[in-house]
Amino acid sequence: MIRNILLVIFVLVCLPGCIESPESSKSREQSKSTFTGYVAKKDTKANRALLVSNSESSLMGNEKIYDADWISGIADQVKVGEKVTVEITGMIMTSYPGQTSGTFLSKEKPEKPEGAVLEPEEVLRRAFHQEEIRIPTVKKLSLDNEKNVWNVTLYDNSLHKDIEVVIEDRE
């Protein structure tokens, strides 16, 4: 008898949490999130791209870590080296990097320094291909006009260390 009473109380307490009001559904739709990051890799077969943020998001133990997500549905609209913003449209699997789906929104076109031959996106594309980093974060990108080279600092989120890459500024 006591067990039945406890079961009824439990159901009455939990049931209101299972019912979704139209207001809560509407507010969830309005709070769609966006993600801005550099396209570090593409998987054209799966139509997904790895976006890695360049702002520090948290610490894992004593090591810093940057947000990174494989976003499916955008690979045909982006190129490695571009900084893009996507709207997250699916559930985010909390692996690292995360996995979700999204809709392409926009590209940020970084300003090409005076005297540069290469576009910044091309420099990053070359840096990503030159260094085999599983999850690279762009920390610094600068042109040395005297030496005609780009200095790129990438952060390896797997090894938790900076990697310096030098790319010659020529076609």
Number of helices: 3
The helix/strand order is HHEEEEEHEEE
Largest sheet composition: 5 strands, mixed, barrel
Shape: elongated
Q: Per DSSP, what share of the residues sits in E-state strands of 2 or more residues?
A: 35-45%
Distance between the termini: 83 Å
Low-pLDDT stretches: 18-31
Q: Assign the structural class, choosing from mainly alpha, mainly beta, alpha/beta, alpha+beta, or little secondary structure.
A: alpha+beta
Seen as an oligomer or otherwise, the chain set is single chain
Relative helix content: 10-25%
Gyration radius from CA atoms, angstroms: 22 Å
Number of strands: 8
Overall mean pLDDT: 86
Strand order of the largest sheet: 1-2-3-5-4
What does this protein look like?
The chain is an alpha+beta fold. It is 22% helix and 44% strand. It has three helices and eight strands. It has helices spanning 2-18, 22-30, 120-130; strands at residues 34-43, 48-60, 63-72, 83-88, 98-108, 136-144, 149-156, 161-168. The strands form two sheets. The chain has a five-stranded mixed barrel. Strands 6-7-8 form a three-stranded antiparallel sheet, with helices on one face. Strand 1 and strand 2 (48-60) form a beta hairpin. The termini are far apart. Mean pLDDT is 86; it is low at 18-31.
Write a short abstract of this structure.
By secondary structure, the chain is of the alpha+beta class. It has helices spanning 2-18, 22-30, 120-130, and strands spanning 34-43, 48-60, 63-72, 83-88, 98-108, 136-144, 149-156, 161-168.
Q: Topology, pairings included?
A:
Blueprint: H1 2-18, H2 22-30, E1 34-43, E2 48-60, E3 63-72, E4 83-88, E5 98-108, H3 120-130, E6 136-144, E7 149-156, E8 161-168
Parallel strand pairs: 3-5
Antiparallel strand pairs: 1-2, 1-4, 2-3, 4-5, 6-7, 7-8
